[in-house]
Write a structure and sequence with these properties.
Layout: E1 7-11, E2 17-22, H1 32-39, H2 44-49, H3 54-58, H4 61-71, E3 72-73, E4 76-77, H5 82-88, H6 104-107, E5 123-136, E6 142-156, E7 165-172, E8 177-184, E9 189-194, H7 197-203, E10 218-219, H8 225-231, E11 234-236, E12 241-250, E13 258-267, E14 271-280, E15 287-296, E16 302-308, E17 312-316, E18 321-330, E19 334-342, E20 356-366, E21 375-381, E22 389-405
Parallel strand pairs: 5-22
Antiparallel strand pairs: 1-2, 3-4, 5-6, 6-12, 7-8, 9-11, 9-21, 10-12, 13-14, 14-19, 15-18, 15-20, 16-19, 17-18, 20-22
Length: 406
């Protein structure tokens, strides 16, 4: 069995399988990337497709499989010379002619950006928005927590009417030929740097605060993925208006930023008393806004009597809940809410089992992120030289659920 090949996988730059052939059934997909790296160095596919890229493989599935079948027989290498294979395989292959591609602006390859955009003031706004979702059981233990983040952008950058494309032509006397090159002018480009742990460690640099491990990243189509894979630089020509530049998720243990405790007392089946305590567990320099704490109450409760040390609370019978709202909740503070409801004096003949409903907590914290992500720089490059202003802000939104017995 010496020299036999068990399987062959072709992957894109993200490691996803584009084409594969399993010859012997004894190789796992974990080994595919290593095999693919070596395969890229061979000349057969380049001979057929000119440029060996994801696009050329996707456009030539049939030819690729024909080549694999001729090159391998039950895992054993057969013909590997491109000229010999050409005698057996007559299927026409689509060849990428990269050198003859016209400039990007001529083909409107930047399809997400229209022409003729004009603004009196050129600005870019970047919001780093994180959503924290936490599930806490009745014993106060965190069952699940995760952080979902997004880099949301609003761009208002002009595209000058003049000098959008500069075509430079040359004439070669010896070969009596002319050629040219298109240069994009006026197409605004942005570069964004984060406190990315992989990048900072590669550069041997330190950063104020902590560096973060970006995980489960998804980019907008305008981002140059090859550039990010190479040096972790987020470089892009932004669309006009609002769009999500990047989303990410961090599966990490996060403590509740606002901790809520609830005590329930029932008095001789005639009334129920609730004592709600809310405590902010973040630093004093930050402030939560639009805090909303929804506490379940029995569906047959009446005559609410509610008192709060901060904010306002009201009975919401359509939701079988009491809603406590605090517009501004600084870090390191604790507030209380007490409520009393009447219950029917006549109970049902059959006992109704105790209902478990969650306490829900929602709020926002401006200028704060749970993950610690930081924008190190946001540069706007525009070759005609106009001035543009970048703005960055951070927002954390949270939702917490804790079951409560009634």
């Amino acid at each position: 069995m010496a020299g036999a090949v068990s399987a062959l996988f072709l992957l894109d730059i993200k490691g996803r399988v584009l084409v594969w052939r399993d010859f012997r059934g004894d190789v796992t997909a974990v080994q595919a990337e290593r095999f693919f790296t070596k395969l890229l160095d061979k000349e057969v596919f380049k001979h057929y497709f000119e440029e060996l890229e994801e696009e050329s493989l996707r456009d030539n599935f049939v030819v690729v499989y024909e080549l694999l079948d001729e090159m391998m027989d039950f895992g054993y290498p057969q013909y590997t010379e491109a000229k010999i294979l050409s005698e057996f395989i007559k299927t026409d292959a689509y060849k990428m002619e990269v050198s003859q591609r016209p400039p990007m602006a001529v083909t409107n390859a930047v399809s997400w950006r229209s022409e003729g955009i004009r603004y009196k003031k050129n600005e870019v706004f970047l919001d780093v928005v994180e959503s924290v979702n936490i599930l806490v059981n009745s014993n106060g233990q965190i069952v699940r927590s995760d952080v979902v983040g997004a880099l949301k952008m609003r761009t208002y950058l002009s595209l000058p009417e003049l000098n959008v494309i500069l075509f430079i032509g040359f004439y070669h006397n010896d070969h009596k030929t002319s050629y040219g090159r298109g240069i994009e002018l006026g197409m605004p480009e942005c570069k964004l740097g984060l406190n990315d742990k992989v990048l900072l460690e590669a550069q041997g640099r330190a950063t104020k605060g902590k560096a973060i491990d970006l995980d489960d990243i998804k980019f907008h189509q305008c981002v140059r993925l090859a550039r990010f894979e190479n040096d972790r630089t987020i470089s892009f020509i932004p669309p006009d208006g609002s769009f999500d530049l990047m989303t990410y998720r961090l599966n990490t243990q996060v403590k509740p930023l606002i901790w809520v405790e609830a005590q329930v007392e029932k008095h001789s089946r005639s009334r129920i008393e609730l004592t709600i305590k809310a405590r902010s567990q973040f630093k004093e320099r930050s402030t939560a806004t639009n805090v909303e704490i929804e506490v379940p109450v029995p569906s047959d409760a009446t005559n609410p009597n509610i008192r709060t040390s901060m904010g306002s609370a009201a009975y919401a019978p359509e939701r079988d809940a009491m809603v406590w709202k605090v517009k501004s909740f600084p870090g390191g503070k604790e507030y209380m809410c007490r409520a009393e409801f009447s219950l029917p004096s006549i109970s049902a003949e059959e006992a109704v089992p105790e209902k478990k409903a969650p306490i829900r907590v929602k709020f926002e914290i401006p200028y704060f992120t749970v993950s610690g992500i930081q924008v190190r720089y946001l540069k706007i490059i525009e070759k005609s030289g106009y001035q543009a202003l970048p703005w960055v802000r951070y927002i954390t939104m949270a939702e917490r659920k804790t079951p409560m017995k009634l």
